[in-house]
């Protein structure tokens, strides 16, 4: 039987025009722990049938951060859960959730490899938790490259955190690529040309971690395994839907 927890919404913050962070204070924080990269499943009042009320969200912050969990959620035009979260949920409301779940985490042996993290939009959430954790434990051993893709400059998530980390941490590189921005001095287009050009020479000591929606993940997995020839074991992903 999964264990359910009660939480209270303590803050809702606009991150970009279509993305908010939701901060949930866990009722009994000592009973709940998670590994960076894991997700929780919310039970939202959006349907009579239980399983149609459940939506999963990656945790975007560090474990044990004052018993508060941060979720980073994008609003979908016809999304049931996101309509509720963006238009009905208020600070002070309670939310029931289960978890943590998921094996999309960094194990100690993975820290001996070069890590290439590829994401679009809110797919950055598990990587933010992982990267904050690596920083807090001083555990950057090998190169870590975060490749973040989104449409416009205004849609970039957690840019300050990652830019600061790139200055502080010599092993960490941060690339943002924008698919619909004309006046942008950085990379333009989708995430694919970035890793295809930088990681076409195969090495066994490299792991790719990918997070986001199916189209981007399918294309990235196909490019890495079929086009570049990486082994399946070097490519891991978390699929949002
Ligand atoms: C393990 C896991 C972790 C997740 N973590 C996050 C997270 O941290 N942040 C977050 O915003 N979402 C996350 N999701 C997605 C989330 O669970 C919901 O699916 C999402 O919020 C849409 O729910 P909804 O009820 O509003 O939309 P629904 O009414 O369920 O309709 C969603 C439909 O749109 C598609 N879709 C959803 N989002 C997109 C998108 N951005 N681009 C293209 N198609 C899309 C879905 O595949 C589905 O067909 C995660 C999903 C999983 C499985």
The CATH first-level class of the largest domain comes to Alpha Beta
Query: How many distinct folded domains?
Result: 2
CATH superfamily descriptor of the largest domain: Nucleotide-binding domain of ferredoxin-NADP reductase (FNR) module
CATH topology of the largest domain: Rossmann fold
State the low-pLDDT regions, or none.
Answer: none
Q: What is the strand tally?
A: 12
Q: How far is the N terminus from the C terminus? A: 24 Å
Task: Write down the secondary-structure element order.
Answer: EEEEEHEEHEHEEHEHE
Q: What are the distinct ligands in this entry?
A: flavin-adenine dinucleotide
| Rg calculated over all Cα atoms | 18 Å
Structural class assignment: alpha/beta
Q: What percent of residues adopt helix (DSSP H or I)?
A: 10-25%
Q: What composes the largest sheet?
A: 6 strands, antiparallel
Comma- or semicolon-separated keywords:
single chain; 241 residues; alpha/beta; Elongation Factor Tu (Ef-tu), domain 3; Rossmann fold; 2 domains; 6-stranded parallel β-sheet; 5 helices; 12 strands; 34% strand; globular; binds flavin-adenine dinucleotide
